[in-house]
Give the backbone structure.
Amino acid sequence: MQAVPAPSLDGIGSLRTEEWIYDYLSAKDPQSIIPSRLKPRFRMPSFANIPEEDRRLLAKYFSSLKVEDWYLKEVQDNEYEKLTGKDAAQ
């Protein structure tokens, strides 16, 4: 099986709100919210089947992962590259 690097959650709370993250974790098809360029077997699974309380706790935690303003541009650029496959500097 081919290894795929896990996405960085560094600063995800600076990019997304707690409610957005909860909605993403609750989606039956997360790719309907953020399309994935990965092969189907490597895509984000749905967490809609885990208890709501657990999804809320995960969303709260992920939304707390914030970065300082001076680092935010780099986090945004990394997110852009992850979603588009294009270098944000171009």
